[in-house]
Amino acid sequence: xxxxxxxxxxxxxxxxxxxxxxxxxxxxxxQPGLGTLVEINIQGDCDDAVLIEASRHAFAVxxxxxxxxxxxxxxxELSIINQQAHHQPVKVGVHTARVLHMAQQMYQDSxxxxxxxxxxxxxxxxxxPETMVALxxxxxxxxxxxxxxxxRFKRPLTLDLGGIAKGxxxxxxxxxxxxxxxxxxxxxxxxxxxxxxxxxWHNYEVLVPDVHKQVKSLYMKRSSVASSSSYYLAGNSAxxxxxQGCQVELGTxxxxxxxSCMVADALTKVAAVVGKTDPIFExxxxxxxxx
Length: 291
Known about the structure:
By secondary structure, the protein is α+β, with helices and mostly antiparallel strands. It is about 30% helix and about 25% strand. The chain has a domain at about 70-160: ApbE-like superfamily (T-fold), CATH 1.10.3980.10. The chain starts with a strand and ends with a strand.
């Protein structure tokens, strides 16, 4: 009978519980980032100092993503895009360009259901802080043009990359851990407030709170999982249906398993709007669970 390991996934804060193989060193570190607490667990056939150094590289790239795509920081690349891209092209860094490319692709593949240009609605509903951009901007990501690392709006838009950027940060953090440890890596997880990636994910469980704050146990279906729920927003939802122009009433916690945490996070929004039978999930080889 194969053993399984239980890793905790929650929303605020996110705490992980690891399984340590005999004779292997393990570290667990937690730092703020991406508007939540990020926990990194690493287990390897090496000294603790090597594991700590790998975690430093992972936290460093998470910090880079946070600084580039923070809605709260008026000097971030995202804020500059929102302020200037309807006047002139804005050049962005590699991280922001990758996230915007995925946002654009997901917008097309979901027929507009996934739209990161709903930022003005989030501000108006008190879910994001007021900024210098107009709060009357109507969402429509088709008005964004992206040429390599140059961003241009045909008209004013207010982008919010919070969720998808968090998933991306988890992906690249795990990439840094793998690059640092190579064959010495036994197990690792990166958990950022509901967005989680596990290195050796087979036979792992995640603990997901439902809307009544009851914890449900789900086996990992892919290496990454992202979850969306309304229990921590007092029944409100941070997910919008762009076509209907309203918040989505979430009666369940939506969890999406995919090979990329960025993809998984984006698809939680799609699943919340259209349900779990849409062909887009098969296209991305993702699985949806609702609890």
